[in-house]
Structure formats: structure tokens, C-alpha cells
Design brief:
Elements (H helix, E strand, L loop, with lengths): L1 E5 L2 E7 L9 H11 L7 E4 H8 L1 H45 L4 H6 L1
Antiparallel strand pairs: 1-2, 1-3
Length: 111
């Protein structure tokens, strides 16, 4: 499907094709040249190209949000890992201190 426009008016022509859209560009231009040779056809694009162009901003936003979301998950995982490493380190020191002060193994094992 093609949408033909010019900058002087808001005329849009939509053409449905069954084959390759690029193959119909030449005949459509010739038909319009036969009707009015001074008519400029400035933009010829397929419907898929127009949809791609109109959704480009949303796609960029989606990619940025996904990227920042992934970075947030990575930073959260690193933070949780750091917190757990700190807790384990503190617990090891406390268990060592209890052992040095003579706590029975049964108390240390249930800690």
C-alpha cells in the first residue's frame, strides 16, 4: 500500500497492491503525470514504513525502559549480594567469638 502526498495539499492516495509495492510506483507516477504533469509526488511510502515511522518513538522508549530496568535488576542483585556477604562476615566473626569464649557446639550449631 502506498500513500502519495505533496507538501502543498493534504491529498493522500492509498493504493492496494497484490504484488511487490515497488513495482507499482512507476505506473502510478505515469498515471499522475498523464493527468497533471506539474503535480509533484514528494513522498511514496508503504503502509508498513509509515507504521514503523509512527511507532519509532514508542519503540525507543521501550528499549530505554527495558535497558534501565535490566540495570536496576543488576544493581539490586549486587546490593543483595553485598548485604548477604556483610551479614555472613558479621556472623562468622560472632560465631568465632562465641567459640573463643567457650560456647558449647550445640549452641553454635543452632545459631
Amino acid at each position: 500500500m502506498y500513500i502519495l502526498t505533496n507538501e502543498f495539499s493534504s491529498v493522500v492516495l492509498s493504493v492496494r497492491t497484490h504484488g511487490q509495492p515497488a513495482a507499482t510506483t512507476g505506473p502510478i507516477r505515469r498515471i499522475f503525470s498523464a493527468i497533471d504533469p506539474s503535480l509533484p509526488l514528494l513522498e511514496v511510502s508503504t503502509l508498513e514504513e509509515d507504521i514503523e515511522a509512527s511507532t519509532a518513538g514508542e519503540r525507543i522508549g521501550m528499549v530505554l525502559a527495558s535497558t534501565f530496568g535490566g540495570l536496576e535488576m543488576l544493581m539490586t542483585a549486587l546490593g543483595i549480594y553485598g548485604l548477604m556477604a556483610y551479614v555472613v562476615t558479621q556472623t562468622k566473626w560472632e560465631l568465632g567469638l562465641r567459640m573463643a569464649l567457650g560456647a558449647p557446639p550445640r549452641v553454635i550449631a543452632t545459631f
